[in-house]
Amino acid sequence: MARDTTALSRRDVLKTSGAAGVAGLAGLAGCTGGGGGDSEYPALGNYPVEGDEVVFGFNVPQSGSYSQEGADELRGYNLAVEHLNNGGGWVDDWEDLSGEGVLDKTVTAVEGDTATDPDTARQSATRMINRDNAIMITGGSSSGVAIAVQGLCQEEKVLFQCCITHSNDTTGSECVRYSFREMFNAYMTGQALAPVLRDEYGEDLNFYQLYADYSWGQTQQASMEQFFTEVGGWSQIESVPTPLGTSDYSSYLSDVPRDETDVLVLNHYGLDAANSLPQAIEAGLDQDMEIVVPLYNRLMAEAASGSIDGIFGTADWNWQLEDDASQSFVEVYRAEHDRAPSYGARIAYTQTLQYAAAVERAGTFYPPEVIRQLEGHEYSGAGLGEESMRACDHQAQRDVLVMQGASEQEQTEDKLLNIVSQTPRGDIGYACDAGPAAECELGEYGDE
Amino acid sequence: MLLQSEIASILLNGLQQGAIYALLGIGLTIILGTMEFLNLAHGALYLVGAYVGLIVFQETTLSNGFLYSAGITSIGFEGGFLAAIVLVPIVGFGLGLLMERFVAEPFYDRPETDQLLVTFGLALIVEETVKNVIGGNTFQSIAPSTLFGVNVSQPIQLPFVGLFPSWRLLIIVITFLVIGVTYLAIERTDFGLVVQAGTRDSEMVRLLGIKINRSYSLVFALGAALAAFAGLIGASIQTVSPQIGTDQALIPAFLTIVVGGAGSVRGAIAGGMVLGLIISAMTQTYSQWAQIVLYLFVALMLVFRPEGLFGTGEVGE
Lengths: 448, 317
What we know:
Largest sheet of chain B: 2 strands, antiparallel
Order of helices and strands of chain A: HHEHEHEHEEHEHEHEHHEHEHHHEEEEE
Helix content of chain B: over 70%
Strand order of the largest sheet of chain B: 1-2
Number of strands of chain B: 4
Radius of gyration of chain B: 20 Å
Oligomer: heterodimer
Structural class of chain B: mainly alpha
């Protein structure tokens, strides 16, 4: 309780001080900011970090449509904390990290449940920031959640490291200075997937879309329409929104015109896709047309099982990649959990380590300096070759995997998908004044 | 021709969805009508039905289940789903008896808020227990690929409709059979007469010397068996995860009896069908309005006909 009071009063003081002007605050806090070993910066957000421990907030869905994703993310996060404190995994390979905590402080974590709901996620993140003094929040699975929490983090001047969020808006129209995204987005899915589908299925086809009716589904639908039309010369017959969390898609599927449609695009994720894809196959739509699920995840592939045979989509990362970093992560994860990690676990692990490495490079937890270390940072060793965290929109520029569902006979507990191609980052992406980045205004560092 | 095929497919999808709602609604309505007991754990019984079905289906599947490990590799047909059809209602019935005796009975004379709290608490306990014992994983739906040697996994060509999943067609037949038998049991048997009389005036029935408490147990158990059976049917078309009890069962069951009328079996059947058809028609025509129109319809029912289509009193009265 004493901790609560301290945290609140300190934040209240900060907010009051804010009114007195940033320059004045900087001068004052220079004297009071100590305790974190780096007292040259003014207090900001939850900086400075007091004591020997630093708190990370893991805000994941433990209930709702994406709860299984959340469980996987948490496994990745906990592995990252263990390695940051004791060494192991990528911490041994990344030169910025020591394996003895971050800036000699032991990393501890608090967990929250977003319930796959933006309001609940904001409340949970608020508790982590105000009560637990989290210096960094990470998590999400649902772009609606990521966008809500990153907005809060910008206001509170606490860094947000995105986990699973694939909407263009996260690093597009809704982007913020205090949030970074390692995952690719719907736009990049379109760029990677459209040429493969054109080569596989041909040109001048008609496609019909169903999409989950929220931020991710809407930008996903728009990107598929743009690239299938531009790259393949395909024509969209219709695009129908479905509520997030729909379990029975039979009526939507009955409406798909079998004689006109060449390709059915199911822009669904998680549980939604685990229902819509098998139901489409049950209705025999695969006999009349090709089906595409643009964004794969393990939950969906496991639950849809035999239905994914031959179906194309994209994925953030896959345990079958043969590079050293991927295999080293698979090895440590498998030792702990007795099966291969999903890509949700890799993003969680990567984003946590990326934050810690940026803090080490900055030599301080002071958020604006950490942000500057992440912006434009070139890195490898995260399983996808050379990557960069672009400064103009905080979107990682990286390769994208195109996947195809394995046949039921071929499937094992770990192997559900086959890697079709790894599209190099040079072939996808967009300039800072194009695509989703053109709509991005990052906002302030907080030390201007 | 297009219009004909659209109407036909709306009707079939609506009937299939409506039949599951009706199963749920009948169970809830006979418990509410007879004992004036609001059972928010009705969705939990659906959840149990889905999971028991899943386990029975997996364990009796001849390629990898318990029977296979016991050396039985052929019993003439894929018995998993048939075994589940028999076992799931029995488990539901047993659970219903236990629930009536240990949860419902002590709360019959307590205010409705107490009943709501205890049954909602029970629903949460069941959901969390499932998560802890079986895990939060999502399981693939458990429709059989063949039944009595007939392939039911392929869609079949129907006049007007075109291709329609044959398993969903079978579901309509199976659920209507169960609904029909339940209807006859309540309308045409002595047990049914007692139940119906109990819904009107339980004091009078008791004064007539009928042991209505025993009937209460049976009614509760029958309602539970129907909910569990609905769970099995639901599990055969949709993925199974711990949250389906509330999302797919409890809310639709309440909407069904609001439309149909509390305490009326006929009402539950009609309510289920009306809701199924509304959802199906709206989804296929103006999908974004489906939920709005559904709840608007139920709200209008509450305003203009609070006793429901076939009810005698207001819901929860």
